[in-house]
Design brief:
By secondary structure, the protein is mostly helical. It has three helices and no strands. About 75% of the residues lie in helices and about 0% in strands. The termini are far apart.
Length: about 80
């Protein structure tokens, strides 16, 4: 009997690797929804605080505040 060049991974490890991609995608999706909700709340807050700003300015400022979080999950 000869040794394999690469050892065969256990069934548990293969299952975890198989499930890891969909699980990561789901977590990313849930984070994206939460961040988008935060952005919408920030837009409402800015509209009340800065009524003279245009809708474009409000969107840009609210999105800028959460840009780092969006980069972390790969949305930007």
């Amino acid at each position: 009997m000869t040794k394999r060049a690469t050892p065969k991974k256990s069934l548990l490890k293969r299952l975890i690797l198989f499930l890891s991609f969909p699980l990561r995608r789901y977590i990313q999706y849930r984070f994206r929804i939460a961040i988008e909700k935060d952005i919408r709340l920030e837009e409402i807050y800015l509209q009340k605080r800065k009524p003279h700003w245009s809708q474009k300015q409000v969107k840009k400022r609210a999105r800028h505040k959460y840009a780092q979080e969006l980069k972390k999950i790969g949305a930007i």
